[in-house]
User: What shape does this take?
Amino acid sequence: MEIRRRKMARIVLNSLLGGTLSALVCFAQTSPASHPAGKSAAQSSSATASAQAASPEKVVLKVGETNVTKADIDYLIGSLNPQVQKAVALRGRKPVGDEYAMMLLLSQKAQSEKLDASPEFQRKLALEKLQLLAQEEYRHMAESIKVSPDEISAYYNAHKGDFEEAELREFVIRKKPADAKAGAKGLPEEEAKARLAAIQKAIEGGTDVKQVAKQFDVPNVVMVNPEPVTVHKGEMLPALDKAAFELKENQFSQPVETPQALVLLQMLKRQQPGMQAVSSQIEDSLRQQKLKTALDDIRAKANIWMDPDYFKAPEPARTSGALGGSSGAAPKAPPQQ
Assistant: This one.
């Protein structure tokens, strides 16, 4: 158990030192407030004690003169990656407190040694602030963009075809390159086409697709998936997408060549989803378009200059010439005698 606790503590510390705390709010540096005059802790009511225990400002950790509140630790835990958050939920907050305290001690020691005054640290601090401010403004801009129902409706009516869906069967045969080594998986192109034609003929002849799969499927070579797949227009390779959405129901495509395989498609069903089904997708797309326009507008209105020499594109790498030269130019002929 102790080994597990230490391991988790290391994970937490790595998360903290990896930059998670850059988003932390400033924690209090003062001592805890004393009890009001005339009242002791024993005289406080149970209701007040309960409220204080739940208060975000309750001090839950002290490192020297530095106080850390419940809100600070809660914010920190919320900033950790989901895997670490899950570990904290299962094993408790103690490892977080241990490593937060160590981080504070290291931070205080660094300040006492004036490490924060070095040019490198100041440059790093300025860059992190720049990144955080840019992220915050990007978030603010994104949240302030509104998309109206009329805009969603207009976009849907103008792009109906883009949302079309198809239910397909795919039959895939891995191609064997002409120069493939012995034992390489795949079929030569002509043999692959003949196999796809046989699969199509069997299905069109009424053979159950599951029986076709048993008959023709060869692991990692001929892949016959009896279960249909649903695809959206534009999400497949362009050649496959074009072939699929030109088909009528129950029609087969011609074999489509991809870099590594030949693919036969069978259209089972085409459908056009209604606007309600895709409204959130349209809203996200329009919001991104508006955000890009706003960012482009900011860039266009800004006075940006870049040194053309410093920011120029690198020159293409030179290849060695036929006789070992580095310029890639043809070697000069020897002078005539």
In short: The longest strand covers residues 261-271. The two ends are 88 Å apart (CA to CA). The beta strands are 59-63, 66-69, 165-174, 222-224, 229-232, 256-257, 261-271. Residues 43 and 49 are 10 Å apart (CA to CA).
